[in-house]
Amino acid sequence: MTQPHRNRVGLQALTDYAPEKTRSALELLLAPLGGMGRFVKPGQRVLLKPNLLAGKSADQAVTTHPEIVRAVAQMVQDAGGSVTLGDSPGIGGAASVARKCGIMTVVEELGIQFNPFDDAVKIHPQGRTFQELEVARALLEADVVINLPKLKTHQMMGLTCAVKNMFGAIVGLRKPRLHLQAGSDKALFALMLLELCEQLQPALTIVDAVVGMEGDGPGSGDTVQIGVLIAGENPLSVDRIAAEIVGMHPQQIWTLKLALQTKREGAKLETIEIVGESVAALKIDGFKMARQTDINGRMPGFMQRLLKQALTARPVPDHALCTRCAICVKHCPPAVMSISQQQLKIDYKSCIRCFCCQELCPQGALFTQQGSLLKLAQIFKTLKW
Ligand code: SF4
Ligand code: SF4
Predict the structure, then answer these.
(1) Which domains does the chain have, with CATH numbers?
(2) Which of 42, 85, 111, 135 is the S-S candidate for 48 at Cβ 3.0 to 4.6 Å?
(3) Does the CB atom of residue 337 touch ligand 2 within 6 A?
(4) Which pLDDT value is given to residue 221?
C-alpha cells in the first residue's frame, strides 16, 4: 500500500454523537489515512489529548465530546495500544473538568489511565524563537500522541483547533507566563504555538467539529452545528481545512497566517490532499467569527501605543453577571485585574489584550468592547471600501 501523504486530510460527515454512528464515522474517516492501525502498534502507550478547557457540560461545546473520546479510545485499544488521557485545563483541576464534561465516565468505563498534566519537564528546542518550554511529562513519555481538539472560535488567535489544542501541554500557571512573554504581539504568540506543536508532533489529529463554537469562543461563545469530523497527520493542514469548512480566511487565524508567512509545510491549500467527503459538501455558511480585537495591519509601534484604546478591543466586565470569584484576577498574565470596592477593575493601559480573562470566566461576565477606530475599520471592510 502506498503511504498516505503527510498533508492528507480526511473529512467525514457526522450529525450527532450517537455512539454507534460516531464509531462508524471515525472508522470511515481514518480508512483513507490507513486506519488506526497505521498510527498505533500493539503494546504502544497512546496518549489522548482532548480539549479540557473548563468544567462545562458536553452540550456547551467547550470541551471535546466524550463520545468522540470513547470511540477513539476503543479504536486504539482494538489496535492493541494502551490508552492514557490528559490535559491541563485553563481553570480547575483536570479530574474535576473531565468529570463535569463527561470524559471521566468514559475513562472509568474503558479502564483508561487518567494522567492530569501536573508534572512539567523543560525542553530546549534547537534553532527556535522560544528556546525553553516547560511541557507535560506525560506527552513526552507517550509512544504516540493523538490530538483531539474541538473546533471553536478564539478571541485572540481567531480559531482554536489542531495547533492551538497542543497549548494544553503547557502545565498550569506556566501558560500565563508565555502569554506575558509574547505580550500584545499576537504574531509572537502564534509562533510559540507553532513551535510547541512542531516540537510535540502529535501522530494524528482528529477534530470534533460535529458541534463547534462560534462568536465569543473559546469559553463563552454559542454552539453551532457543523456536522464534520476532520483528521490528518499534519496539524497545520487539518487547521487549514477546518478554516475552509467554516468559511474563515487563513489570514483571520494567526497560526495559519504565521505558518504561511514562514512557509511551513502543509499550510497552503494547494499542498493538501483531501480524502473522504468533499469540502464543498460539508462547508457551512454564516459561521460567526470572534469579534476582531485589533487592526490586523502594519502601523508604526509608536502609533499603535498612542492609539491603543481606539485600535484594539478590550474585555469589559458585566457587573451584573460577575460574581467576583477572582479566577480572572488570578490568571491575568500581567496582573492588571483587581477587585476593589466589590467591583472588578482592569488597568487597560497595561492590559495586553490576551483575553485569557474572558476565556476563563465561568459566568461569561466579560464582553468584548471594540475601540472606535477598530469599529470604523470594520464598517469600512463590510462596505468593501
Ligand atoms: S469576570 Fe468572571 S472570572 Fe472575573 S471575577 Fe467576575 S465572574 Fe469571576
Ligand atoms: S485583563 Fe484580560 S485581556 Fe487584559 S491582560 Fe488581563 S487577562 Fe489579558
Answers:
(1) 8-282 (3.40.50), 301-383 (3.30.70.20)
(2) 85
(3) yes
(4) 94
